[in-house]
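Researcher: Sequence of Putative integral membrane protein (TIGR00698 family) follows. Predict its structure.
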Amino acid sequence: MQHHQISEHWLTAFTPKIIFVTAAAITLLPVVPPPVALLMGFALAQTTGNPFAAVTPRITHWLLQLSIIGMGFGMNVHSALKAGQEGFLFTVAAIAATLLTGALLGKLLGVDKHTAHLVSCGTAICGGSAIAAIAPVMKAGEKQISVALGIIFLLNALALFIFPAIGHALHLTQQQFGLWSAIAIHDTSSVIGAANKYGEEALQIATTVKLSRALWIIPVAFITTLLFKTDTGKIKIPWFIGIFIIAMLLNTWVPLVQSLAPLMVKGAKTGLSLTLFLIGTNLTREALRGIGRKPLLHGVLLWVLISIGTLIAIRCLV
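Model: Prediction complete. Tokens:
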């Protein structure tokens, strides 16, 4: 009887971990695209849960950065510079419009000023990375940070499925979709996932424009200190962008790296699938319930307005 109880206890304790590890391993298979990996993670969050919740955020953070660096080995400096120049004006206009619209919507809906600004920064620049960088500068509370992150992660998950479908329905070119996804999707992981699904050229443009957009964390952080009248805190500069640029330079001019590039890019795409799976496992019922209706409405309206506005501009000008 005692042996039976021990066996039952062992199964109860280890089954969620076995399921989690097995599901994570499945996402590494080439037949599993990033959107499916995200859905698997989300399904797991709603059923067995994430038994490694304490460590997955840190793993996700590093895995995403390594995947982005790996993508750099599949890009050429000349095409990247061209994409960056084309996306610069769109990026500046979109960031300014998003921050202003976010502030106005926050006031109209009665959303806490700190939460509204965090969601606006996440929408304007690079999702969770921007929130993590801006939060200490404006001395945001834990609840405000978790609400903003919850909104951004939820909308990122939707974008991964919605954007490619809209792009195909509107017959957007690879260039148009690459620009649009880089500007209108919050997190780099979902930008790369959506653009990768759309096409190779869209992926290269989206990745380059998105990473150049991430550098706007620095000026926006300084603006935040003025708006919230706080002392300038420690600003987290996305260092991995520098390594991404080095990877591009090596792939452009070093033949040995060029021969290894396809393998590195393949590994980066596999890493992205695992990253999105881990992100999905954080979208638990508790996390979704804790968001609140007004902040969620603020995030959705802001995202829809910016997505439509940038789409119209890109279709007219590109």
